[in-house]
TrEMBL record:
Residues 8-284 form the ATPase BadF/BadG/BcrA/BcrD type domain. It comes from the Bacteria. This is ATPase. It holds the Pfam family BcrAD_BadFG. CDD domains: ASKHA_NBD_GspK-like. InterPro entries: ATPase_BadF, ATPase_NBD, Euk-type_GlcNAc_Kinase.
Length: 294
């Protein structure tokens, strides 16, 4: 039986950092939220962002410095697999009784299945499948845009820009989608090239709703782009079950819009999340699995 009085969960991703504190019964007593906390921002900025989220949660919970020394922390951090990041994190000095680090996908999977074996497929700006099989965590995909992230928002946006450029060249038909995309660049290829020189995966992913809207409206090219993405998602899911995961949950902002494009037999295999990433982070911190933060 644990003697730690408090548990801190951190979900540090590319768009935000969230913190949640629970007591030993699983009762939620404090939360905090700050900005981007991907390891790519650099260790100094990452630490500052984490500190701010933790301070908010601790203040709301009314925890003192002594209380923090009696707190176990679990942190899921995007980009932790980059060379040198785990070593840099291990060197950080925290006031907690213990700290455990994993990727943000691992805590999302832990939360979705309440720590049990299972898998998730995250479809957002990027894409990644995270599995837990016999207690071992394994990732599939998620190697980064543009070499990976199939079926993601960024991949949809990239395909849309390619289509728009081909249409401007006359190499493919102009459709409502190509016109909508090229309109953002004044229908001028030099402006599109200038945008691409500085575009991030998130910039490409911002075009994904446009692609989905036009696909749902019957645009032939948009439909082909979405159907290709759905095929990648289908293969992800097939691989998850081939690897031995007992269940799979779709997650991420793009998941609800892509789900209707999947085959009925695939959808029938999917489960529903039992918790979120912060629930998983609290489990990582050591909160008993039968406790429920809320």
């Amino acid at each position: 039986m644990t003697t730690t009085r408090y548990f801190l969960g951190i979900d540090a991703g590319g768009s935000h950092c969230r913190a949640r504190i629970a007591d030993a019964t699983g009762r939620l007593i404090g939360s905090g939220a700050t900005g981007p906390a991907n390891a790519r921002v650099g260790m100094e900025q990452l630490r500052a962002t984490l500190d701010a989220a933790i301070a908010q949660a601790a203040a709301e919970a009314g925890l003192t410095a002594d209380d923090l020394r009696d707190t176990s922390a679990g942190m899921g951090i995007a980009g932790i697999s980059r060379p040198g990041v785990r070593e840099a994190l291990a060197a950080l000095d925290w006031p907690f009784a213990s700290v455990a680090y994993v990727t943000d996908a691992v805590i999302a999977n832990l939360g979705a299945h309440r720590g049990a074996d299972g898998a998730i497929l995250i479809l957002g700006t990027g894409s990644i499948a995270q599995l837990r099989i016999n207690g071992t965590d394994v990732a599939i995909g998620g190697y980064g845009f543009p070499i990976s992230d199939e079926g993601s928002g960024a991949a949809l946006g990239l395909s849309a820009v390619r289509h728009a450029l081909r249409a401007l060249d006359g190499r493919s038909q102009r459709t409502p989608l190509s016109l909508a995309v090229s309109d953002r660049f004044g229908h001028a290829i030099p402006q599109a090239i200038a945008w691409m020189d500085r575009a991030t995966p998130r910039d490409y992913a911002a075009l994904a709703p446009l692609v989905m809207d036009h696909a749902e409206a019957g645009d032939a090219i948009a439909r082909s782009i979405v159907e290709d993405a759905a095929a990648h998602v289908e293969r992800f899911i097939e691989t998850v079950f081939e690897r031995g995961a007992p269940s799979c949950v779709l997650m991420g902002g793009l998941a609800p819009r892509l789900r209707p494009w999947l085959r009925a037999r695939t959808v029938a295999q999917l489960g529903e999340a039992q918790g979120d990433a912060l629930d998983g982070a609290l489990l990582l911190a050591g909160l008993p699995g039968d406790a429920r933060a809320g």
